[in-house]
Amino acid sequence: MPIRKKLVFVAPKKVEIYEEFLGELADNQVLVETILSAISPGTEMLVFRGQFPDLNVDTGIKSLEGKFCYPLTYGYACVGRITQVGKSVSREWLDRLVFSFQPHCSHFVAIPEILLPLPEGFSPQTACFLANTETAVNLVQDAAPILGERALVLGQGIVGLLTAALLSEFPLEKLICVDLFRKRQLAAEALGVKVVLDPCNPGFLETARKELKRGADLTFELSGQPAVLDVALSLTTFSGRILIGSWYGEKRAPINFGGEFHRSRIKLISSQVSTIAPELTSRWDKARRFEVAWQALSRIHPEKWISHRFPFNLAHEAYTLLDQKPEDALQIIFEY
Question: Do residues 32 and 106 share a domain?
Fold first, then answer.
């Protein structure tokens, strides 16, 4: 068995690459050699900066069990090739490309049941977006857009772009996207979004209100910044919905619930991908949602958003770039 390299968050703004021996495969296990893994900028920046709360990492993913605390292995978008199989595993698995919700590492051992084989024709570069695409599918399902609605997406990071791509397929009256950074604005425009706004521009709120007429029926808060909830409240119409897909960690901001919000009947919806909305569970499960996510990937081709490729041993430089110059990056991947 090979020596594995794994990324460990050891302290705020400090990551290291550890090496360890992998034990022998159990009969029901396979060995996967990672080809690439994708950084999920919003969540992983909270980990990098030490802005996570006292919370379980993810009770639904075995490789992410435990609490948010240093030292921490993290990440959930690995694509690799199966290079060894245990005695009871069909040899049909050998040499298959698979996706796994796995922390960043050069090799990992898993049972086949938790791996997602890449559909025929999918490249590792496309497949590494699966986790965030499932998130976008979940957001849109929870929001349930209606024919002719006016929709607003605040934040055009990778999840915001994927959400905008899905919404652009709906017969909405209007879709407006907002982001601070020019690179993200251009990516949204390339999706066919006709109105993309910069919140730093003078008159931003007036322009947005004019475009939205009476306000957005449906607003997605995907910026990762809790203060942006005030923008969402100010631009959402009476009885509209605000879907909060951002995870703020320990970030806090005062929100103006003392003004018009009390009379607005605006609905605030918490949405997170580890579960399925209770009203859908009689018809939907994770397997069905993954099918939809794979289909969305085949239409969107998000690999065009890969802006940087870092060798795994330069992981600290990748996180430093995201921390200090987020305007320069869209999707960063590690190559092994």
Answer: yes
